[in-house]
Amino acid sequence: MKRWIFDFFNLLYPQLCAGCESPLSTGENLVCTTCHAHLPLTNFHETSDEKMRELFFARIDVLHVTSLLYYEKIGTVQHMMHELKYRGREEISTYLGSWLAADLKNHSGFQEVDLVIPVPVHSKRLQKRGYNQVSGFGKELAVVLGARFRESVLIKTRNTINQAKLNQTKRSDETQSPYELAQNIPEGSHVLLVDDVVTTGTTLVLCARELLKIPGVKISIATMAISV
Ligand SMILES: [Zn+2]
Question: From the DSSP assignment, how many helices (H) and strands (E) are in the chain?
Fold first, then answer.
């Protein structure tokens, strides 16, 4: 599109920043320069991923774990997640995926990934939203890591899950999983499981356990954000 046409349409229907809702200027993509500069990057893959490790290492066998951003209940990242999940702004998923992918390009551990699999959304939710909010993120990572993106390996069989209740009982991880393996993957595959925000880690643990039923499967995890 020619620049003047873009400017004209932008004047009539300004694109808003996914982080703060201010109108975007020419050259800004999805988030404004200020939000982009202030997004709270974890840099886990470069420094330490202790917080992620604490969530998973005692519960499942995982190789590499990382998260792009810190998530707070109020703030830019929360706003972006809300826009992504409830306002149809699917492009946020791709945006965050390409950002993390650029960071992981030279990480030898993540380079060994064979398959990228997103945490599934229940079919009713998928119908309503029109997309799995993690798919764009996963696809970007798959391209850069030279892996295959497989969206339908896992399915969610129950629409709602009472996370608080789940966490009350230790055995709940095993007994109440709403996730099931719907397709086979090659034995020994190294899978990168991807999700939006990790809080208790239970969702990812349950998904990983399904995949670990296949002999020799190795699991790594990457999320858009981690709750602080
Ligand atoms: Zn902004």
Answer: 11, 7
